[in-house]
What does this fold into?
Amino acid sequence: MSSIPPQQPAPLSYTVLKADPPARRDWPAWVGQLIVVAIVATILIFGAIVVIRSAYSVRRMTDSGVYFRAAWAVRTSQDIYFCTDDNGWHYVYPALVAILLTPLADPPATVPRHLVLPFGVSAGFWYAISIACLILSIHWLAASLENAAPEQIRKRLQTRRIWWALRVGPSLICVIAIGSDLSRGQVDLLILALLSGTAISLMRRQSWRAGLFLAGAICIKVVPAFLLVYPIWRRDLRMLLGCAIGLFVGLILIPSVVFGPTKAWNYNTQFADFVLHPGVDHSGTNALKHELIGLWSTDNHSIMAIVHHIRTSDMMTRDRPPKPANSTLAIHWSIGGVLTLATLFAAGWSNRQRDPFNDQIKTLLTFSTLICILLLITPVCHLQQFMLALPRVTVLCFSARERRTPRWPAAVWITLLIIYIIANTITHIPGTYEVRRAHGFNAALTTFFMDTRLYGLATAANLMLVLMGIDALLIRQREPAHFAARI
It folds into this structure.
């Protein structure tokens, strides 16, 4: 009597929603070459403008001087938290950034410039580093999405048109915030590269590497520590341990080698007293408090600042309290908590499914949505920091070609992205909270632009990305992966 072999499970397949359309004509090679030339020319021209504004203006129009002056304090054994740059601004980051930038150290004007680079050269190097981090982040994210796709889908992605669309498209959507960050010489593009590396490592299930990347971001600007909710929710002990090792090296070991254990510990204590405590509860009376978290001395677009401005909208600007009420802080943290829990529950408790492609997309979607929430709940969020939404925009552009459900056609995705671009563009127009009647600005128009900043147009646009991410996670939980044939 012959035995019946056990029935094997059917292999996972990706259902095409309709018959394959005729192949679209790809771009000729010269189109890609033209795009490269345009990008290189834009980078060089904008870089020249940034260097001129940073080093050769009457007043240095850059924040990079803060890092370079702190690096000079490291070289001369001065206190990095009490030295100021030429604009009178203090250093408000962990000591690791100042240590790494010692080759670009900038002494005060009263000190002879022996064996130091000219400030313009340092600003140019910093701009080049930021551009390298931006290009690396864009290519990392796009390539990871391409490699995650199954073989039959990946073949359709291997065209010049799709290749450039996945890299140039998200960059153009976030170009206003990216340009603002580059012009200010901030560290956010370096953080973007580290967070992109974290997301890609999570997609590839490289938990140790993901933890090290995240630790690097926390060592530069402590607020990415919020993203530790992801490995905690996933019970990813390897990522948590990798992050702990990275934090030990970046916050304790390297400063101890450079400064000595006692001074390194004092620096960490100063950072907690001067930066962390005022940022969380607006406590303290130190000199950095007004400069760092003052609601009228900083361009703040967090939920806390927007709620404060709305609740005090009936007061004159000069009469509004500089410190938010306790109820405002409660609203701020409550909204952040609700959005975080909604994202994590939409993503699910476990991240291992039968569909490896859907698994990787969900990982990037979850982590990038948490980054957008981080921008909303950080005590101080500047406009240029919304460029950290680039991973979320990249996966959104990729998903726009994936027809998940009829209620979200491509036209809706495109419309929402256009709204996001317009919101971020409008809020960058004034450039200051003061109503500038000079330079031909109409007072009513300038007041309108100022109000869009005060009452959170850019914040609402980022909140829209969060809600779209939660909705996309819920859809992926309930439906199998279907990839549209029109890719």
Confidence is low (pLDDT under 50) at residues 8-22, 432-440, 480-487. The chain has 20 helices and no strands. The radius of gyration is 24 Å. The CA atoms of residues 420 and 464 lie 8 Å apart.
